[in-house]
Amino acid sequence: MTQAPLVSFEGVAKRFGSYIAVQKMDLKIWQGEFLAIMGSSGCGKTTTLRMLAGLEAPSEGVIRLAGKPINDLPSWARDTPMVWQSLALFPFLSVIENVEFALKMRGVGRAERRRRAEQWLDRMQIGEFADRDISQLSGGQRQRVALARSLVVEPQILLLDEPLSALDAALKVRMQSVLKTLQRETGITFVYVTHSQSEAFSMADRVVIMSRGKIEQIGTPQDIYRAPRTRFVADFLGASNIFSGKVARDPQGRTVIATDSGQFALPGNVGVSGQPASLTVLDTRMQIHDQPPGGARNSVAARMVGEEFVGATATIYFETEAGQELRVQKSHEDLAGLPLSIGQPFHLSWAMEDGHLVQE
Amino acid sequence: MNTGNPANRSPLLHGLLMLYVVLAYLFVFAPILASFVFSFNSDRFPSIPLGQFSTEWYRAVAADPLVWEGLRNTLLVGVVVALISTALGFGAAYTDYRYSFLGKQVYLALALLPPTIPVVIMGLAMLAFLSRVNLSGDALAVIIAHVVICAPFAMAVIRLRLSQMDPSLEQAAWNLGASEWAAMRHVIIPFCRPAILGALFVTMAVSFDEFAIAWFVSGLNETLPVKVLGFLQGQVSPRINAIGTFVFVTSMMLLILAQLLLGHGPASRKE
């Protein structure tokens, strides 16, 4: 990473009539990173990408590419190729003509054009299909053509708009590793828009989580997963148990959160007393006990209400006296000694450091 | 056609449907077929039993300088009309595809209106207007009047094709470095090519057949259908059958070509 960001959004907002697609946003994208922008549909992630590609004009703010403001630059004068959700391959051109397109538009000569297109087709392992029609290719092969078509100009940045959404699960995983390897080898900055947590977290160096036109959190996948910053992020990731309550002090003067299911200690001196807040605890970080655990761990009594087996792990569902639903994910070995049956009372515990206070 | 399991088909219903289709086609094509048959009949008047096979009426038509003049006018008008109305129709269809603006519904209604106006009214209006600007009786007058009638057909055909286009396609071209003009040339027009060719043939066929408006405005530069009426008013002759057959075959060929391009042509493959 260099000191200056490759792309910066400075106070960028986008409105469509009275609808606010993107609220005032500041975002820096660094040279050579794989950045995923994640959120559910309508969160503004695609609009953000389209503003960067020049297909939408920001209502306010400045977008810079390599330091220069690009607000007024038409799409074709930016060097921001995009891989489209529909792929948008040209159906009347052959595979290699599709890949040559951007070079042709830049006035590259016929022989040179062909040579570079062939190179990229080989690199994407679809060299043998050069003269085929697009309609003769499978979904995965089309994906590779779309990538080659965008990368043939060897840009500084590649934009990807949910490119894998049409593929089946197995192919998706294979393309993820193709994309990740490609990004690492070329050093091209990838900006990847997706609604899929697994795609974002498995490929990206940094993830931006958006909701209702606003950035909720930016961070590495590990950071976001372990310590979601807002209630929305915790909910969206779906991996955490969330207790709602108020920040308070216990008799010893420690910061706690008072919830309907009890008081729980928080790490450090966080939050303002009396402020509403939520506590998140990853479902893998909770322990199940058939006796009340001693020691300094937070704990809560809960009845088992269900179980679900997914491969090597199981998710056990509980409900507290106050009606709070909780889940715990464990390997089958960890669960072996426990008398698991529906309705059975247990105690769930977690270390203080595994709890994170998030904003409401 | 996929007929599935024949057990699911009632033979009676199937038979009735077949009969219906045959009768419907017979009703439509019998008069034309009769004209075709009598055009090769040696008898002076259409009557049964038929006389001998003969091409004398075709020879008589081919020897008539008036027919050649009419054909020349028709072809000239047809080709020019096809080119102009397809260009106009493409522009109108692309405007509809690309932009949304206040009054777009009115714009579309007006653009598609001309073929729904009764031809007599259209012809009279054209005559009144064109004579005022001193164009009536000129081949140019027929061209102008026919473009008005034909452009909506071209627009409809090309609009349909544009509606099948992935809306990201044009933006993808810009994104890859094509200016608006380059995207038009390298993406929009190639995508619409089958529809553009189809529109050329359809508009030429419409112009080729059009009689009423041409009759009003053509003056001395009569097109073939107008000439045919002239012959009929003079004397009934089997030559009419010969010309009729020729016009029918030509129009059908144009429409079949258009259909092939729009329906099953190799260039119409989709993504």
Question: Would you mind describing this structure in some detail?
Answer:
The complex is a heterodimer of chains A (360) and B (271). With 360 residues, chain A is of the alpha+beta class. Chain A has two domains: 7-226, Rossmann fold, CATH 3.40.50.300; 235-358, RNA polymerase II/Efflux pump adaptor protein, barrel-sandwich hybrid domain (OB fold (Dihydrolipoamide Acetyltransferase, E2P), Beta Barrel). Chain A is 25% helix and 35% strand. Chain A is built from nine helices and 20 strands. Chain A has a six-stranded mixed sheet with strand order 6-7-8-3-9-10, sandwiched between helices. Chain B is mainly alpha-helical and 271 residues long. Chain B is 73% helix and 0% strand. Chain B contains eleven helices and no strands. Chain B has helices at residues 11-39, 56-62, 65-98, 104-112, 119-132, 139-163, 168-175, 180-209, 212-217, 224-234, 239-263. The interface between A and B is medium-sized, with 29 and 22 residues.
Task: Give the mean pLDDT of chain B.
Answer: 86
Please outline the major beta sheet of chain A: 6 strands, mixed
Instruction: Indicate how many domains the architecture of chain A comprises.
Output: 2
Ends distance of chain A: 34 Å
Strand ordering within the main sheet of chain A:
6-7-8-3-9-10
Shape of chain B: globular
Number of helices of chain A: 9
Give the largest interface.
A-B, 29 and 22 residues
Q: Can you give the helix content of chain A as a percent range?
A: 10-25%
User: What is the CATH homology-level superfamily of the largest domain in chain B?
Assistant: MetI-like
Order of helices and strands of chain B: HHHHHHHHHHH
What ranges of chain B have pLDDT less than 50 throughout 5 or more consecutive residues?
265-271
**How much is the radius of gyration of chain B in Å?**
23 Å
CATH superfamily of the largest domain in chain A: P-loop containing nucleotide triphosphate hydrolases
CATH level-1 class of the largest domain in chain A: Alpha Beta
Give me the count of strands of chain B.
Answer: 0
Percent of residues in helices of chain B comes to over 70%
CATH architecture of the largest domain in chain A: 3-Layer(aba) Sandwich
CATH topology of the largest domain in chain B: MetI-like fold
Number of DSSP helical runs of chain B: 11
Mean pLDDT of chain A equals 90
